[in-house]
Hints:
The complex is a heterodimer.
Chain A: H1 19-36, H2 39-62, H3 92-120, E1 132-136, E2 145-151, E3 161-172, E4 175-182, E5 193-194, E6 197-198, E7 204-206, E8 214-220, E9 225-226, E10 233-234, E11 240-242, E12 248-257, E13 260-273, E14 280-284
Antiparallel strand pairs in A: 1-13, 2-3, 2-8, 3-4, 5-9, 6-8, 7-8, 9-10, 10-11, 12-13, 13-14
Helix pairs in contact in A: 1-2
Chain B: H1 14-30, H2 32-40, H3 54-75, H4 83-92, H5 97-124, H6 133-155, H7 160-174, H8 180-188, H9 195-227
Amino acid sequence: MVETKGPTGPPHGPAPSLWPLGFAIGLTVVLVGLVVGNWLTVGVGAVLMAGFGYVWVRDAMSGDEPAEVAAAPAPDEATVVEEEVDPTLYRRGTFIGLATLGLGGVITGMVALPVAGFAVLPAFVDQGTDDIDIGPIEDYPEGEFVVATFLSDPEQGEVSRRTAYVRNNGFKDGQPSFTILSNRCVHLGCPVQVNGLSLEDQKQLVSVENGPSVELTPTQAASGFGCPCHGGQYDTEGNRTAGPPVRALDRYRFAIRDGRLVLTEPYSVGEVDGTGAEAVIHAYDWVNPSVHVDGVEAILYPLEPPH
Amino acid sequence: MATTTPSRKRKQSPVATLLLYPLEWLEERSGIVGGVKWFLFRKVPRDSSWWHTLGSATLTAFLVQAGTGVILAFYYKPDPDKAYQSIQHITSDLTLGWLVRGMHRWGASVFIILMFFHMARVFLFGAYKYPRELNWLVGAALLITGMLAGFTGYLLPWDQTAYWATVVGININASAPFLGPFLAQFLRGGAEIGTNTLSIWYALHMLLIPGALFALIGLHLYLVARLGVSSPPWSRVAAGRDRPPEPPNGRVGLTRGGRE
């Protein structure tokens, strides 16, 4: 027999009637009355609404007793003949089904691909760093670290404030030498602190051309750097001496323009041999904290996103 | 199904007709009443206990998070220059803001803890076994997604704890071999934490992750309703040692029935 879904029997919705129209007119009259501020009109409208509403509801609720309708005659089973289908035939239904799927796929792709691209690509394209002016080189006394905090991207504001430990190493072969360590711990990115005196009372602000001032805080007798998060320790060249970090502290390349120290780009360091101006730095492209740049583990990080 | 077939039609009081009419109208056009009955009026094992309520408790905790989160979003500003102040404003200035923020903050922990309790109950009762393995997997996905909600929400107060915990969390992601650095850069929205990071995490926290949680919870509950609640491992009825009790006076439904 034929199986039907949904409610059995004939539909028994309310019969068509004009009562809702009267109800709507009453509502309109009420609203017009409210707008023009005439309470008599409102009252007339309310009466219309109540009256028509009542008969509408009454009719609707009594109208669901349908007359018996003869059931449609069941199809004679003898007349149902299995349709013979040639299995090699490409049927219309199959074609339409596949075409719908294919078109749907194309449309989905056209919409989803640019959106997915926008979701992911801005984090990877047009990265790179600006040059950062951190003040005249006279503000960096020879042989001691100075804590310099600066905006790495003035357009982004304070959220881009970063810190570097800058030590003037004097001259090497007639060229000025600076050791500029990023304060970003290469374990998991916390800010490392100076192991030594930080002379907060001698902090000075140095104005730079675009953006807020650079803060310079001198230090005294810095013996290295320590991270408050998980205990990583570094010496004054940024080499790891204890704890979980996987390489030496990141550094900044620098230039000197018109007597001012300019950070050009950060880079990562495997380790540093020697000290000060004589140091030999095993430099690598700038990578995330926690990423190995040398040793066996570096195999695990063959690709680095563009910075 | 509405009882409007002529053969079964009984005389109803006008009030009952008035109340039932909208339900019958809805049922005829959507089947929703039958669906709700299918979902809510299920048979459960007679020896189900308070342990079986941990899932509902977790759901309640999630709904509290969803509700309070929507209200907090009225006042929170996901901007690096304003986020911290807007949280202070919610907590200190706005009427009852301290309460709703506190509910959301502590409720997050409640949600996670209840998920673990619920998971422990399912594990120790063996309720993850056939035919409920798929629901265990959906539950595991819910646990991970729920913890992602906690991870992304932790940044939003934008204080020192939030900021540095997130720096560390992102860099833990970066330490994963091969694709870790790419994942970290996606989470930061760039090579460095910047103006976009906070709004990205806000969008993840209040749009993407709750949407995924709602969808997974829907699937989870559908499977619960379809497969039924499992008996506890000590159930004598399920072991076949006791016969299921006869319903007293032929009544079924909300009565518990049988001897203890």
